[in-house]
C-alpha cells in the first residue's frame, strides 16, 4: 500500500509507515486505469535529513502531537493577553512586538526539527508569519472584526430581546402576545347528584372506660340530606339494625358543622358528627336529599369496638435467682394487637419491648392494610360474620430468666388493637391522681424481689477429721452458710435437712446404711447449727429459705465420736543430793489414758503450810514429773483429777488415793529470772539481771562474763536475800556477751555448780541517722504535688523511729515515722527543707549526722504565659489590648513563657467582623524558647480575640485548675476603598473656551472607611502617554461628587482611575492597575428626527428615530413622568412600547458632547394601553347550577370605550385533550363592564377585544399558524 498513488493535496507518507526491508531496485507496480500525478518518491533513509529527535526515542505522530499542544498553549497565552489588555497604546505596541517575535521564532524554528508533514518551505513559513502578524495586529490594537456583528446576528436568533421605552430588555413576544390582556373564564356545570361518605379519614373508634360514646363523621358534599340511614351490625350476634337520622337531627348536625367554615363558604364539604353509644360495624345505608332522590354514597365500613385494656395477672413477688418470671399479661382487645411494656432492674431502665399478638386461626380483614371500602359483604348471613371484630381476652405469658438479684419491675405502657385504638397507660400514670380514673382496679405493674440461693457446707470437719464429743453431751453441727451472690448468708431462717446413721449401723466403708434417718431443722442464724449428740455419720442433704432451695457444697459429711474417759496411774522414787546425801525431791512416772493433751491436777502441801494446787500439761500418754521443792520441809503430793482434749471437765481421782509424802532438804541453787529472751543492750551501758537464790544464807555466787572468747570471772559474797539484782560493769565493746552462773555456796559449805546463763546482745555502735543523696546531692526539684521519697541512711537495729520536721512550715511540727530498712525513705508531699532531729533504733537512742541532717525539696515551677506591656500593648482589666492596626498590615505579639521549654500552647482565635456572624478557630503551637512571637491575624477587618486556654511544658501537662486563661484583643480596621458609583461609564463634556461655560457631569465616588479621606486620581488622555494626577484632600463624607477640572481635559477621550485612598486612621489602599475606571469625552451637539409622523401608538408598537452626530448617542426622554436616558450605538434609536404613557424625547448627546451641551428638543408620542378584559374577576370560576337554572357572566374591560369583544363556549374535556368550541358570539359595550346570563354548560372565555385605539386577539392569524392576531386602529 506504500506505493499507492496520492493526490497532490494528500499528506506525504509518514516515515513510520515505510517498511524496513524492501528491494530498492524493484520496479514500481503499474496501476490500472487513468494515471494520476505521482508524488515525489520518498527519499531513502541514507539521503534523507535526520530528525533532531530520533524516531526511536519519540515517533513522528507523537512529535506532531507535542507541536500541536505547544502551539495551542501559545494561543491560550495570546488570548489571555488580549482579554487582559487595557486601553493603552504603549501596552498594545509592546504586546504586538512580543507576539511577533514569538510567532517568528516558532514558525521559522519548527522546520529545523525535520518532523514529517511539518517541513515547510521558506515561502510557506513567511506566509504563516504574515498571517500571524495580521492576527496579532487585530488582537493587540483592538481593531474591530466583523465576526462580532456575525455573532450578534446569530445571538439575535437565539436571544430575541429589545429595549423598551423603560430602558429594560424585554421580549417582544411577551408584549405582543400578552396573555394577561384576556384573563379569566367561567365554567358552568350542571350539578350532578350529591355525595356522602361515612368516616372519610378512616379514624379508629372504641367504647369503654371513660369513653361512653363516639362521634361518627359523615361527610356530605353538594347536598342537603333530609334522611340518613345507618346500618349497624352487632359484633356479638351479627344482627343487623337500621339507625335512622331524622331531618331535624340532620339540621342540628349541619349547623354545628357550618361553624367550622366561613359564612360565605357554601361549597366546601361538611362533616356531620353523629353520636353512637354501641359497638358494632357501621355502614352508610341510605342518604336522601331535599329533592327526594337518593344521594350517591361511598362504600366504607367503620368499626366501633371495645377500647383495648390490659392488666397484669397477679403472681408471687418473691423469686429465686435464675428462675423464670412466669407471669401473664391479660389483654382485652380486638386482635391482631400490639402490647408495649417496659422493664427496670434495680432501678436501671432496660428499655421497651413491643409484642405483636395474632391469635391462631384468626382470619381478619384488619390484618390487611386498607384505606376504605367494605370490610364484609352483607349479601348473605354467612358473609355477614363480624366475630373477628369482637374483643378477645388473651393471656400473654412472659417467661424471662431472672439472672440478677434485687428488684425487678414490669410495667404495661401501651396496648393497641387492630383498628388503631391505643390505650396509653404510661401517659395516664403521669396524670394527677384525680385524673387516673382509667387505672382504678387495674394492675399495670408486676414487681419481683429476686433472692440469692443459699449454700451450705461443713466447717473444719469432714469424714477424715471426725468430731469428738464427750459422752452424753452435744455439739453444734459446724455449718458454713453463704449465698450464690454476695457470699454472705441472707434471708434467714433456713431449713436444713441431714442424714444420720448411728456408729454401730455404719457400713464397713463408713457409709450410710439402710437404717439412716433424715432429719430436718430450722436455723435462725447462720452460725446456729443443729446440736448433735449421738455418735455416727452426719451428711448434709439440702438447704433452703422461705423463697429458694440452695446448694450443698463440700465437705458435707462428718463423723461424731465419743472417745474413752481419761485416767491416770503413778509410780515415784526419791532424788538424793550428791553432796549432803539428803533427799531433794521425787521423780514421778505418769501413765495417762484418753485423748492428748492431758491436764493433770495435783495439790502440794508443806507441813504447817497451805495447799497449792498445780496443773501439769502433758501432750503424750507417758511422762516423768520432777517434784523438787525449793525450800526444806515435809511435803505431801495428792493427785486429784485429770482431763483430756475431749473431756474438758476434770475426772476425779480421789477414789484411787494417789498421795505421795517426802521430807526434803534441797541444796543451794540460783537461776536468772529474766534470762529469756536475749537481752538487747546499748554500748557503754551496764546490764542488770534478777537472780533467784535457794538454800540457807549467806550465799556466795561465782559467775563469768564471756565476750569474743574472753572470760571475765566475778564473785559476789555475803548475799542474804533470795532475789539478788546482779549489775555488770559498762559493756564497752559491741557484740554478744554471755552471763553464766558457775556455782553457788550456801551455809552448808556445799558448792553447787550452776548451768544457768543469759545472753546480752550489745550493739556494735550507737544508732545513727542522716539523709542520703539523690543524684549526688541532698536537694531535689520535682513536679508539684508528686509524692517524693527522701532517702534516709540508718545505722543500728531495725526498726528505727525517726523524728523530722519541715523548717519552712509555720509552726514546724515534729513528725515521727518508723522505718524498717537501713536504706529507707521518708515520703513527703510538700516542698521545704526537711531536718532529722532525733533517731531511736529497736533498743537504743542514737545521734543524727549533722552533715546530712537536712534535705531541700523544691517544686519545678509550673509554666506560665505573659504578654509584655508596652506602648503597643495595654492591659485593661483582665485583658491585654493591642494597638489597632489596618487590614493586611503585618503585626506580631511577643509572648513570654516561664517553665521548661518546649512549651505547648493552645489558643482560641475569635473573629467578630463588623457585620455578619463571628467565627472561632482553635489553634496550637510549640515554642522551643522562653520567648515566642504570635503572628496576628489581619487578613480581615474586625475585632480579634486570642484566648490562650491551654499551656504545658516538658514537665507539666495543662492543668485547668491552676491555669488562668490569658486574653489578647486587637481591633483590625478595614482598609478604605473608593470606587466610582458608575464604573465604566463615559461622561460627556462640551469643548468650550471657558470652564464656567463648559459645565460637565459630576462623577459620584463612594468611599468606604473612616472620614476624612485623601484621594489620589489619575487622568490620562488616550493620545498622551503622560497622565495627570489629581489629589483631593479632606473628604469629610463617604460620598463625594467629583468635579473634574477643565484644565486637565482636552478634546478626545480620557481615562480616569483612582490610584490611592487613605482614611483618618492612616489605613490606605492602592487600587489595582486594572481597577474599574470611567471615561470622559467632549463632543458637538447632535440632532434627532422621528421616522413616522403619527402621534398615537399602541403597546407593542416600535417607535423609531434617526440620529446624526458621532456615535454612541445618549437620548434623553421622559416617560410616565420619569426622566430617562438611553444609550444608542448606531444612528437609529428604536424602542418598543412596553407600557402606556406619554413618550417625549427632550435632549440628545453623542460621543463628543455632554449633558450640559446636549441638543434640546421635544418630540411627543402617546402610547395607549392595549384593551383588556377580565372574565369572573380574572379567575377561573366554576359555577354549579341545576338543570334549567341560569348563571351570570361578568365581563370587565380596560382601555378606551367602546369595546368590541368576541367570546366562545367550549367543552370541558379531560386533562390532556383540547376543548371543542361549541359557540362563538360578538358583543359591544360602551361601559367598562357587562353582564351576560347563560344557562348552557361549558367553558366561557373571551378570544378577542378591541377598543378605540387598539385591538388584541388570541385567535390564530389566517395562514400563519402559531401567531396571535394583533390589530391597531
Automatic annotation (TrEMBL):
Pfam families: Ig-like_POM152 (PF24312), Ig-like_Pom152_1 (PF24519), Ig-like_Pom152_9 (PF24527), Ig_Pom152 (PF23664), TMD_POM152 (PF24097)
Chain positions covered by the region annotation Disordered: 1-48
Domain Nucleoporin POM152 Ig-like: from-to ranges: 453-558, 766-852, 1171-1257
Residues in Nucleoporin POM152 first Ig-like domain copies: 195-304
Domain (Nucleoporin POM152 ninth Ig-like) ranges: 1086-1166
Domain Nucleoporin POM152 immunoglobulin-like residue range list: 562-666, 884-974
Start and end residues of each Nucleoporin POM152 N-terminal transmembrane domain: 59-144
Domain of life according to the entry: Eukaryota
InterPro entries assigned to the protein according to its UniProt record, in alphabetical order: Ig-like_POM152, Ig-like_POM152_1st, Ig-like_POM152_9th, Ig_POM152, Pom152, TMD_POM152
PANTHER family xref list: NUCLEOPORIN POM152
The protein's name in its UniProt record: Nucleoporin Pom152
Lineage: Eukaryota, Fungi, Dikarya, Ascomycota, Pezizomycotina
